Each structure stands twice: as structure tokens, then as C-alpha cells.
Amino acid sequence: RVSSVRSGSRSSKTFKPKKNIPEGSHQYELLKHAEATLGSGNLRQAVMLPEGEDLNEWIAVNTVDFFNQINMLYGTITEFCTESSCPVMSAGPRYEYHWADGTNIKKPIKCSAPKYIDYLMTWVQDQLDDETLFPSKIGVPFPKNFMSVAKTILKRLFRVYAHIYHQHFDSVIRLQEEAHLNTSFKHFIFFVQEFNLIDRRELAPLQELIEKLGSKDR
User: Fold this and answer.
1) pLDDT tens, 59-104?
2) CATH number (domain holding residue 135)
3) I need a labelling partner for 3 at 20 to 30 A (CA). Which of 10, 107, 114, 119 fits?
């Protein structure tokens, strides 16, 4: 289901298929609502739980959306994020991430950034595709551990933003993607702040940027 082509050419991208929310479903309506409020330009308002909606469902829809956004953003810079340019998964000199998923890889392993992000995105996709964790059918309840699963997913997705900002921002600027990246990250941060989904310590690699983005909206 996840095909990765690894060669020296431009096409050596690891594409993760976009996770689609079924049209006509309630989650699809929620996604449309999220897109409409985003269009208003007020991100603080756009992330708030719509009246009468289920918190788990709102978090699920947005988590899928962030996965798709980050997948796309990272896809634009994969040719610059290689085994040789990024031999470790880092967010600046002070933060290094080692991969473990608790099932296949129990003990954290040190690996290159492209390998880490490949593990991470594949792991997230498996969670999103698991109907017992992310039910797409109406009336199917979310599991009791849903919130902790969502928090782990978002914490890990943050690391991809952190890596892009610290190691590849010059490439992002050359590709004229910085406005897109900043808007996506700002939306992500306002969302996790609104529902307290990522521990402040985990956000440390991008703390200055987070404060800057927040101050513009006060």
C-alpha cells in the first residue's frame, strides 16, 4: 500500500497515499466546515470545536487533515532530505529524535531523517486506517484510548514540521513554499493549543516561532 521508490533521481519520493474522508459522511461535513472557517482567515476561531459536535470526531478529522498537509509539504522537499544531508532525524543541534513504535521497533533506534519520516508517516497512516481507532462510520464509538493515540500522532507530526523548519527552510524559501508552510504550521499549533494536545516541552524546538505566530493573532 505504501510504495517507496529509492533511486538517485528526482522521483525518489516516498509517497503516502492521501487519506480521504468519505464524501457524504458526517466527518466530511466537519472537514468542509473546517475549510470554510479557515477561509475566514481567523485561525483561532477556525480550530474551535463547532457547537454541538463531538470532540473526538473533531480531533480525528483535523488529525487526518494535518497528516495530509504534512505529507504534501514534506513531499516537496524530499529530494533535499537524504541519507547524506540528514543522517540523523533532528530539529537543530539540540534536538535529535530516535524512532520506536512500541510494536515492531520497541527500543528507539537512531536513523536518518528520511528513514525516520518514512517510519513515522507509515505508522500514522496505519493508525488512521484502523477503524477501531479512527471509526469512519456514524454511530461507531471512538475507543477509550483515542485521545492518547491522537496526542501521540500529533506529537510525532510536529517533529516533521520541526525538521523542515530547522534543516530545510532555505529549500522551502527557494520553492516559494514558506507562506504555505507557515499557514499550515500556524493552523496546527493553534489546534493543539486549543485542546492541549502536545506537551509544551515537545514544542521547544520551535518555541520562538510559535510565540511569533501567536503574537500576530492577539
Assistant:
1) 999 999 999 999 999 999 999 999 999 999 999 999 999 999 888 8
2) 1.20.140.30
3) 107
Helix runs in the chain, H state only: 26-39, 43-46, 55-77, 113-129, 146-174, 178-194, 207-215
Q: How far apart are CA 96 and CA 94, in angstroms?
A: 7
Residue 187 annotated as lining a ligand binding site? no
Element (H, E) at 90: strand 89-90
The boundaries of the domain holding residue 61 are: 26-215
pLDDT band at 37; cut points 50, 70, 90: low
Q: Is 111 marked as a binding-site residue?
A: no
The pTM assigned to this predicted structure is 0.86
Residue 197 lies in a domain: yes
Nearest to 134 by CA among 81, 73, 60: 60
The answer on whether 86 is annotated among ligand-binding residues is yes
